[in-house]
Design brief:
Chains A, B: Its EC number is 6.1.1.21. Chains A, B: It is found in: Cytoplasm. Chains A, B: Pfam families: HGTP_anticodon, tRNA-synt_His. The structure is a homodimer of 434-residue chains. Helices cover 39% and strands 20% of the residues of chain A. Chain A is an alpha+beta fold and 434 residues long. The first copy, chain A, has two domains: 223 residues, BirA Bifunctional Protein, domain 2, CATH 3.30.930; 95 residues, 3-Layer(aba) Sandwich (Rossmann fold). An eight-stranded mixed β-sheet of chain A has the order 1-5-6-11-10-9-7-8. A five-stranded mixed β-sheet of chain A has the order 13-12-14-15-16, with helices on both faces. A three-stranded antiparallel β-sheet of chain A has the order 2-4-3, with helices on one face. In chain A, α1 packs antiparallel against α4. The longest helix of chain A is centred in the first third of the chain and has 20 residues. At the A-B interface, α1, β1, β2, α3 and β5 of A face α1, β1, β2, α3 and β5 of B.
């Protein structure tokens, strides 16, 4: 007997049915906006990750040397892969490029609630537009997906910020600040003690008073961007604030203003973000980590050797999204559904097979006996797979050219001429013949 | 600039759309028979493969030691994984267990036409039934899937054989035969010179005359199983022949007799098959390898530490299936489809956004401008994404409370009151307003 690997999961049919419903709902929201599905490899050149984030990132990945001596890694995220794909066909692809896909990713990290070593994300990205409407469309897709799942503004909020607001604010301090380190500190703000957070800002180069001042303006600016404009001005800060306001305006036009809240203390951990960033949070705070996040990464394609290509995206992760749905009571029922069970008694297989075939041709889920069971055993099995209707094809009935239609919810049944079933009915039930 | 890894593929939207259509069609065929989707991990304990096939198998896999010192392998096939999952929940799962899933697998092997290092399969398996109807149902699902793809009996055939017919026949020779080696020789029969094939049988323990005799009876038995019964009798041979005939009879009841041809020279390469085996071949011979195959593997679950659990399955591979579809001219068109483009001119975004939202709520694919393009640029873009209908929301029209509906195929257009669009129409087109 073998065990599955820690942090990896098996999904049996009832749970998988619920997961599939959620995945389909999220993908469908993106597809309605014209995002097109792509297919991507599970392995990439390990240098693709090490070059950006340093060799030490490989310790957190499933990286190894393949039989041909290549250093490869199981993809921990999709963004570098789609950047590579955009660069590879940069001439042929018309802009904007709008892509969606759902697949597993892998990281060798600590397993905890909602965090696994194999985890599934739906990635939704726009390449080739730097307009605020592109950021807003990504927010709108995410909001539509959550809405279609049955979640409301009571359940979640998008906290929206802007990397350049943080960066330009930091530049207004007379200090030699490591901007990346300071932004990472902001990203950790809600996860660590205040003193530790201030220490991180000081480590990034701010004086202790500057760190406190910086945090105060982030908090004040979350209520009102005017507070930031009053605190300092610079060309980049003004441009960033204007861009952030334009994105929120465009989001309002797209009908998602209620879900979006300004939050300058939101930073996102990844280094490659450049403009608007946002995170989805559980409004009740029961799912304490960000459910998912996204943002603008205008420099990544160029850093992969492509032409300057602005980009913005979001990537709902299905583990935390599932926790949010469960908390809000909208996780789909974990069960399997069957339209018909065709119950065969005696030497009636050709007729039973014909009926099953006719029902399947109409698109229904139809099971028949594979286990040589008797009447009672088959009825129990039909019940166990939640059959709505059972069609009983028995020798005695057939002698009268009839079959029996049984409604499993009520237990009601009736005989119908075998030639009349399914007849002209698209989805015949007991009621059609009673 | 990074390259993708050899033997791995990127799928851009037009090709992915065609692939998705084929995958959905195959899965849908299985789901109509009540096969339920499962989700499975990409990595497994490497011992799961090495224990069955020897350490040398790991050279053909993407196997490595993870950061925690585990010997792991990227899954080269699904069967060991589903066997592990059946064993893990053997008490809770009601029989028969009918599972389907589509996902990538990985093997470190030579790349050639229709063979990649990352390849996609739809696995369809039944556990817990040893009845011939279960084998027949698996054949019927495969036949229904190919039929739904537009393939006919002119395009493909299933060559059906039985492992125990081969085994029991070998037992009738007075020789010390390595059965696995002999069966592997039969599997190679069509791929090597006749002399090499006979040599392989001799290496497996048959005398040279016995090898020729064995092959003659396989060929004669392919026309008529009676020839096998005449050549030799034994309890296991008779039982195997009876089982093979019962499966073909059941397949006929399920309406797939035309697609199934007896072929005792079909053996399947994998060691774990125990009963009926079959391979799908291109009837024209243009796709020279088997398109896919399947069969019965009654001993695998027990060898994984579970209770005796008969099993039968099939696994269409999407690379060779794609070649067959292309050869037969039924590969789906590689293009993207868009229902509506909402073209916005001037300061009309709130109205354009409302119209786009209403159309998306009706389930349609709707794009709008993300690139601040003018009228002509937007119309070109709408054309490039194959929009069926363009809704033009212009300032002048709006001053008259109208929008323009343009049919992209004909170029015809008409004005309609903005409040009437989309109105009560589920899928409004130019024709609804002309």
């Amino acid at each position: 007997m073998y065990d599955r690997i820690k942090g990896f999961r098996d999904f049996y049919p009832p749970e998988m049915a619920a997961r599939r419903e959620v995945i389909d709902t999220v993908e469908d929201a993106a597809q309605r906006y014209g995002f097109r599905e792509i297919g991507t490899p599970a392995l990439e050149d390990a240098a693709m990750y090490a070059d950006k984030s340093g060799e030490e990132i490989l310790e957190e990945l499933y990286s190894f040397e393949d039989k041909g001596g290549r250093d490869v890694a199981l993809t921990p995220e999709l963004t570098p892969t789609v950047a590579r794909m955009v660069v590879a066909r940069q001439q042929a692809l018309s802009k904007p490029i709008k892509w969606v896909s759902t697949r597993p990713f892998w990281r060798y990290e600590q397993v905890q609630q909602g965090r696994f070593r194999e985890f599934y994300q739906t990635n939704i990205d726009v390449f080739g537009s730097r307009e605020p409407i592109a950021d807003a469309e990504v927010l709108a897709v995410a909001a539509d997906a959550l809405d279609a799942l049955g979640l409301t503004g009571e359940d979640f909020e998008f906290r929206v910020s802007h990397r350049d607001v943080l960066g330009a604010l930091l530049d207004t301090f007379e200090a030699d600040v490591d901007r990346r380190a300071a932004i990472r500190a902001v990203d950790k703000r809600a996860k660590v003690e205040e003193a530790a957070y201030i220490d991180m800002l000081v480590d990034a180069g701010l004086g202790i008073d500057q760190a406190r001042q910086f945090d105060e303006v982030l908090v004040a600016g979350t209520d009102d961007l005017g507070a930031v404009r009053e605190f300092a001005t610079s060309e980049t800060l003004d441009a960033a604030l204007d861009n952030l306001e334009a994105v929120l305006d465009a989001a309002a036009d797209l009908g998602v203003s209620e879900q979006c809240n300004l939050s300058l203390t939101t930073a996102r951990g990844l280094d490659y973000y450049t403009g608007v960033v946002f995170e989805c949070f559980d409004s009740t705070g029961e799912v304490s980590r960000a459910v998912f996040g996204g943002g603008r990464y205008d420099d990544l394609i160029e850093s992969f050797g492509g032409p300057p290509t602005p980009a913005v995206g979001v990537a709902p992760g299905h583990a935390t999204l599932g926790l949010l749905c469960q908390r809000a009571g909208v996780w789909p029922e974990e069960s399997i559904a069957t339209d018909y069970y065709v119950l065969q008694v005696g030497d009636t297989r050709p007729v039973a097979a014909r009926i099953a075939r006719d029902l399947r041709e109409r698109g229904h889920v139809v099971e028949t006996d594979l286990s040589d069971r008797g009447f009672g055993g088959q009825l129990d099995y039909a019940d166990s797979i939640n059959s709505e209707t059972v069609v009983i094809v028995g020798e005695q009935d057939l002698a009268n050219d009839e079959v029996t239609i049984k409604d499993m919810a009520s237990g009601d049944q009736t005989q119908v001429p075998v030639e009349a079933f399914p007849g002209a009915h698209d989805r015949p039930t007991f009621d059609d013949f009673a």
